Amino acid sequence: MNRIFSGIQPSGNLHLGNYLGAIRNWVSLQESFESIYCLVDLHALTMPQDPDELRGNVREVTAGLIAAGIDPERCIIFCQSAVPAHSELAWLLGCLTPLGWLNRMTQFKDKAGDQRDSAGLGLYAYPVLMAADILLYKATHVPVGEDQKQHLELARGIAGAFNRHYGIDFFPLPEPQIFGAATRVMSLRDGRAKMSKSDRSDYSRINLTDDAETIALKIRKARTDPDPLPGTPEGLEGRPEAANLIGIYAALAETTQKAVCAKFEGAMFSSFKSELADLAVSVLGPLGAEMKRLVSEPAYIEGVLQRGSERAAEIARHNLSQVHTVMGLMRE
Ligand code: AMP
Ligand code: TRP
Description:
The protein is globular and about 70 Å long. The strands form two sheets. Strands 1-2-3 form a three-stranded parallel beta sheet, with helices on both faces. The protein has helices at about 15-30, 40-45, 50-70, 85-95, 100-105, 105-110, 120-135, 150-165, 210-220, 240-255, 255-265, 270-295, 300-325; strands spanning about 5-10, 35-40, 75-80, 140-145, 175. The protein has two domains: about 5-180 and about 295-325, HUPs (Rossmann fold, 3-Layer(aba) Sandwich), CATH 3.40.50.620; about 200-295, Tyrosyl-Transfer RNA Synthetase (Orthogonal Bundle), CATH 1.10.240.10. By secondary structure, it is mostly helical. Helix 3 crosses helix 12 (about 270-295) and helix 10 crosses helix 12. The structure holds adenosine monophosphate and tryptophan (TRP). Tryptophan (TRP) binds near residues 8, 40 and 148.
């Protein structure tokens, strides 16, 4: 049986990168897989958080997922901290994870920077918790953006280590599902940096809650180069900002970069940007409006999360109890 698991951090400012790189794919996957989507607030704690904001962000991101088309009846949508088995399995798997594997994780290196000694243990153990998220449900497929590929490799490594160590075919090795078009959306201010919710400049990203005017303004102000658009994707080499905008257009229009280049060959950015803005508003406008409507209905969102965590906990309890048996722990 195939089962999808994926997680998203509830850190506010859901943006176009999250939508094109993750959420939109989750929406289509729910058609063919049993799907579990998790608001990973424990992962969010690896960076400083304001408690009220964190709780608010869980609700906001949940609203975003539902507004984007994830059906809470068909899928399980829940919050990580509501199912304590995640933390417990993270400990158990941590005991089987060599430090050498964690030392290779580029996200830790990027986030800790030269502050390695003051970085928290949580930031370091982040990928082990992520492995626990996935393996707790024996998920077979994990849709993530490019940036999470290394963490997923680690999760496969840990699953393999467990199976080998106990001589049992227990955890399936989860397959990454990295999607083709625009899996990596770049900042509108710098074509070499990822679009990110933590970027200081709000002009670097299009938030899913931005209204039509804001979306159009941000696209108009997006950094470009002085040349007209090329007729083929090869002509985008060395032009990261142009490549990013074409990639965004292609992803939003659900077509290829090749087709977009052919359509806009020789056009100046000013006219391309105005078409891109119209397209972005037509896709994101309704989504943002629905998201705001749902945020104003906290009781509904709470209900979705409550039901989701009950369904998740049932699967988690069953699998964790088997892990206890395999590892020689006392069962309750
Ligand atoms: P995060 O916001 O880092 O919790 O990421 C949530 C999901 O969105 C993950 O699957 C990421 O890989 C994806 N994601 C985040 N930023 C981008 C981006 N700029 N481009 C594409 N995917 C992204
Ligand atoms: N680390 C992922 C990110 O930042 C979020 C995440 C946590 C996740 N647990 C997961 C993704 C399990 C997939 C599966 O995007």
